[in-house]
What we know:
Elements: H1 7-20, H2 31-35, E1 45-50, H3 58-61, H4 75-92, E2 96-101, E3 118-121, E4 125-128, H5 142-147, E5 152-155, H6 167-170, E6 171-174, E7 179-183, H7 190-200, E8 203-207, E9 210-211, E10 214-215, E11 223-225, E12 229-232, H8 240-249, E13 253-256, H9 259-263, E14 270-273, E15 279-284, H10 285-290, H11 293-299, E16 302-305, H12 308-314, E17 323-325
Parallel strand pairs: 1-2, 4-5, 7-8, 12-13, 15-16
Antiparallel strand pairs: 1-17, 3-4, 6-7, 9-10, 11-12, 14-15
Amino acid sequence: MPAKATLDQRIAWHREHRFHCACRPAPPAIQPYLTAPNPTPLPGRVLMVRPAAFGYNPETAASNAFQQNTHHSDAGGKARAEFDRFVEALREANVQVEVAEDERVPAKPDAVFPNNWVTFHEGGAAILYPMAAPVRRLEVREDWVRQLGYNQLLDLRTQARGRFLEGTGSLVFDRANRLAFACESPRTDRKLVAEVCRHLGYEPVVFRATLQGTPIYHTNVLMSIGQDVAVVCLEVCDEPQFVRSRLEQASKQIIEVTPTQLEAFACNLLQLRAADGQAVWALSIRAYGALTEEQRDGLGRVVVADLDTIETLGGGSARCMLAELF
């Protein structure tokens, strides 16, 4: 920190120190600035990875009940076509999309889901995450992260010790209120959630959820949080009133969906900011078709894409394909 630092310099120094170390709390006069609500929580720019070797991944299927091995002919080609149309739809809605090209060798069947290995944050910060499936660990591209201008890296892989946390699959951020919702599962370790929150200055909200007796593998298939709205399936949560109360305390309008709607990826959506400043939700045709008219009205403006191949074989939908850039 420079001598006779200004308030802005002090805030910036303590924010960076907390991200890299957090060995001691910031002074009381600085803490309110580090925990203040984010005035622009919606991203207007996203990273997407065009898949080169998309397909059914048996390594992830053990914990992802949404995957179906239907042996689609030319699954890779169909997935790339779905990807391209989704990118086009987002750009037509004036959302900025950065496309990275996956490489065919080594084969990475889930490369289309970059949000599981990286999250991007304000001030050029990014976090790299330890993923459960060995083949998915090949997806991590630190060079892409730096090319995008994020040079303050926290690599959780170095401290995972056999534990896993998979980006914004595991963590659903309410950036406006600095909350991180997390559904505990084999892919979402409670202690790693706490570590991320400690570095970001967020409060963890950890709970459990099951679907047909099986732990739900990722939080973002049962919950999405936008600026004013939360789409959530409370019925699958072990403590639904706890989750509801935290969302209500954050002043979110709750759109509650059923387990059947959840299975159609109705919670796997992301609210973005278009170039005109308007909010827009990105989701799949399958998810949109599962919602009622009243639920659709609650969302407002949407971008809808056909992602059937990616959803069926990959077990993830629109939100999983988007890594927010700030």
